[in-house]
């Protein structure tokens, strides 16, 4: 039995540190800082960027973009990007989560993404996410964003006994997402708890609510934090406050989700699999991040690089990417614009004005339309000394020299459902990364982009596979077509094969982790040289 590869162990550690998109970004941020990347703020100027240096920024603390600038980079050169996403299907707490019925304290949740919700039944669950905390300081009150993660199993969604559902064997499990996906927190009768020192710290939920209603009626304090916190069970708030190291009445708001307490693990009789939640898509997020870090780790890693190596990990892919931090936002174009502009400083003020106008149009126009309008109508006649092109025209050139690898997990052939795959396109475990194709542009791959990615694999004797969905099954999609159409960048859609996608517990092969990491690292190191030999629009 082969020893577990270090990259596989590292992935397991990354997964176990990342129960939510917020935690995944926090872990990525920690690793980037340890590797010498400098954090930037989107609220500040980026005038000090330097060739040969490495940077990153976060947006909403659920999206992160990291990049390393080649020592030979000049404005107008290309960006070599791997894009993935940090979110996964889950159950998120409702704004008013307090549910009390049948003698139970339950927590109201809403579905996020297209999860296999039946897999969430009878699992040992907990909550994790972020909270907004009110902090009193000498100069007044401030508000802090904190990540929380209750480590112990505190919730469970129990199934109905077969004796009370006699049709389940013949008709299958039928779930009503509103009525049946409500996790149990406690019984009402056990709502009194004591801390380790035996001190009373919580009263029964209904007693607390009644008392607070009396206080509100007497004092008229409808806007108080206590009144707001009546939206949630005091027991739950106490558990969250303990993790946040604050008092329950200091919690202003939160974004929390349910997550499994069972840790990720290398498993199988031959230790050839990874059993874990959130492989889609933290697996690709990790492999791309590690590839960027390791491809820029030595003193001279960027000496011969003329482009910018980048990883962009977006939130909200599972629900369409249409958010301020999703792939459908200007986040990618913002990054490319600011990096290009920082190396053409004489035009940075004009670029900032133009980009500001672009943002104003994004809400009503398609990004491609906006880019075309501002580049050709508004600023086509703006030039600077020595007939150099204005920065935005350099950005257009840079985009055409750039390349995006849209990395999202792929569907491995299932031995019990082999008819679900097209007979000539059946990705296998341990078979390497899968290039995804779709004639209707649900994937952004074309002959040129697939060739480039395949050529890198062949140079390093790495296995590569192809996937196309059956004609009688609807095809999923990724951030690839969104960014390809929105930014105008050449794109290939790929992913490592896995089973049980969107289950609370997924699985993939350890060899494919190594293949993915090595493939991504080679892409970062060799794309500039390979792309110079590819002639298409000439």
Strand ordering within the main sheet = 1-2-3-15-4-16-20-18-19
**Architecture of the largest domain, according to CATH?**
3-Layer(aba) Sandwich
List low-confidence stretches: 194-208, 214-224, 346-360, 372-389
| Count of helix runs | 14
**Number of folding domains?**
2
Helix content: 25-40%
Oligomeric state? single chain
Rg (CA only): 25 Å
**Termini distance?**
52 Å
Calculate the mean pLDDT score and round it: 88
Question: Percent of residues in beta strands?
Answer: 15-25%
What is the C-level CATH assignment of the largest domain?
A: Alpha Beta
Report the count of strand segments: 22
Could you give a short account of the major beta sheet? 9 strands, mixed
CATH topology of the largest domain: Aminopeptidase
Label the structural class: alpha/beta
Broad shape: globular
- Kindly report the name of the CATH homologous superfamily of the largest domain: Zn peptidases
GO biological process, one term: proteolysis
Family: Belongs to the peptidase M18 family.
InterPro entries: Peptidase_M18
Organism: Digitaria exilis
Summarize the structure in words.
With 538 residues, the protein is α/β, with parallel strands linked by helices. It folds into 2 domains: 6-88 and 277-344 and 398-532, Aminopeptidase; 90-202 and 229-260, Aminopeptidase i, Domain 2 (Roll). Helices cover 31% and strands 24% of the residues. The strands form 5 sheets. It has a 9-stranded mixed beta sheet with strand order 1-2-3-15-4-16-20-18-19, sandwiched between helices. A 5-stranded mixed beta sheet has the order 13-14-22-21-17. Strands 5-6-9 form a 3-stranded antiparallel beta sheet, with no helix packed on it. Helix 7 packs across helix 14. The radius of gyration is 25 Å and the shape is globular. The chain starts with 5 loop residues before the first helix and ends in a 7-residue tail after the last helix. Keywords: Aminopeptidase, Hydrolase, Metal-binding, Metalloprotease, Protease, Zinc. This is Aspartyl aminopeptidase. It comes from Digitaria exilis. Belongs to the peptidase M18 family. One of its GO terms (molecular function) is aminopeptidase activity.
